[in-house]
Amino acid sequence: MSTAAYLPGGLPAPVAEPDGVSAPYWAGLRESVLRVQHCGHCGQWQFAPEWICHRCHAFDPAWVEVAPEGRIFSWERVWHPAHAALKTKGPYLVVLVELAHAGAIRMVGNLLGDPLQEVVIGASVQGVFEHHPDHDPPYSLLQWRLA
């Protein structure tokens, strides 16, 4: 599932860190796939990406495709944007989504739709891939929509 650009131009493109630890995550989004890390040694799921497992400290947790769906764990209606490019785009909704199929790890993202809509903790959400192929470098984002 994809959507037209939700975010305005002028924001820096999200890219992997210089050490590349999050590169599989960003590459997955460009393929409309959500990938998170899973440790083959102890079974721990984790996000944000790290070179070692958060639980057992084994190196190189595997990247596993998971369903881009979850539940709203927390949320915030943003009235004062953190970047100048968002100055005229407020308010907007930011959600903390818990991924039930990935050990209940949590990810932050935007909630699409009316920024004044009622948001309910525990509401089901579905991931929406927002692609920016004409940007240099090309990138994709994971947004969220009420299911």
Short description:
The protein is mainly β. It is built from one helix and nine strands; from the N terminus they run E-H-E-E-E-E-E-E-E-E.
How would you sum up this structure, described in words?
It is a single chain. By secondary structure, this protein is mainly beta. Helix content is 5%, strand content 38%. It has two domains: 16-66, no CATH class; 68-147, OB fold (Dihydrolipoamide Acetyltransferase, E2P) (Beta Barrel), CATH 2.40.50. The strands form two sheets. Strands 1, 5, 6, 7, 8 and 9 form a six-stranded mixed beta sheet that branches. The longest helix has 8 residues, at 23-30. The protein starts with a strand and ends with a strand. The mean pLDDT is 92.
Defining traits:
147 residues, mainly beta, OB fold (Dihydrolipoamide Acetyltransferase, E2P), six-stranded mixed beta sheet, 1 helix, 9 strands, 5% helix
Indicate the percent of residues in helices: under 10%
- Cα separation of the termini: 13 Å
Largest sheet: 6 strands, mixed
What's the β-strand tally?
A: 9
Per-chain topology:
Layout: E1 2-3, H1 23-30, E2 34-38, E3 45-46, E4 62-66, E5 69-78, E6 92-99, E7 105-111, E8 124-132, E9 139-146
Parallel strand pairs: 1-8
Antiparallel strand pairs: 2-3, 2-4, 5-6, 5-8, 6-7, 8-9
